[in-house]
């Protein structure tokens, strides 16, 4: 495991670009990099549906540069990527339902823009080190659990297909053009600064908002098992993947504490909140068609190669998240 000292040596004084850096994971990553002494530049479109929120930089806003730019504005990419040492590529459209109702936009952001960004790197900064935020959604409905990186790629929605293509572009450019890229397949990431106004990013955010507004949670199904990664642990994985040369050209699953059913997750949230209620409903037909059922990751590869592991148990992760939104909810609704 890399120590804080070794990570500081890697990132202190280095130029780091984060696409989607005003969003949930990107802003938490920016905070960690600022603490490590990096020179952080953020690119974010601040389109309301995609999760960027200037409040996410509270306390560090003066220490980062922010460019309000859409990654679909391909002509801007060369200027932004030049002279960067690291690129954490987190820009994306995350809503599975939106990808089904507006597939062209999902294609532009999660596929075409990714290729354009990699071309900008190839032409203008071929030595940049890239970590790409991929997703467990590309696996589709698992044939087996826990899911390892050898599982077939079989997405159940447009978002999963385009994210798989974006990941594939990164791996291709690594193999063919020598672009030093790594992909992290994220599971359900939770924590402070996640989107809570709707379920475009994660249903857990909506659940927490409803609890704090004294509204019942809605559980669709309830027996599905999921694993959850606390955002601080996910951030550590991004930093390790960027810092370690053996990660170049590799794809890693991220996991979390032991999986739980959605029903148990709701019970934990009510317990942590000190009250609340939930109702169990049948899956809506449009959601059922793209639901993946049980999913939890086998993260043995990243444990073995990079020494990463999730450090935060689920109850602690939920408690810290609920406490954050008790203070900050007004900035996120």
Rg from alpha-carbon coordinates: 19 Å
CATH class: Alpha Beta
Assembly type: single chain
Biggest sheet descriptor? 7 strands, parallel
Low-confidence segments, given as residue ranges, are none
CATH architecture heading: 3-Layer(aba) Sandwich
The geometry reads as globular
Number of DSSP helical runs? 12
* Percentage of β-strand residues: 15-25%
Number of strands: 13
Helix/strand order: HEHEEHEHHEHEEHEEEHEEHEHHH
Total of domains: 1
How far apart are the termini? 37 Å
Spatial order of strands in the largest sheet: 3-2-1-4-5-6-11
List keywords for this structure.
Rossmann fold; two-stranded parallel sheet; 12 helices; 13 strands
Structure description:
- The chain is α/β, with parallel strands linked by helices.
- The protein has a single domain, classed as NAD(P)-binding Rossmann-like Domain (Rossmann fold), CATH 3.40.50.720.
- It has helices at 4-11, 24-35, 77-81, 96-101, 103-124, 158-177, 203-212, 231-243, 262-273, 285-288, 300-306, 314-328, and strands spanning 15-19, 39-44, 64-68, 86-89, 129-135, 180-186, 188-190, 217-220, 225-226, 228-230, 251-253, 260-261, 278-281.
- The strands form 4 sheets. The protein has a 7-stranded parallel beta sheet, with helices on both faces.
- Helix 2 (24-35) packs across helix 8 (231-243).
- The chain is globular, with a radius of gyration of 19 Å.
- The model has no long low-confidence stretch (mean pLDDT 94).
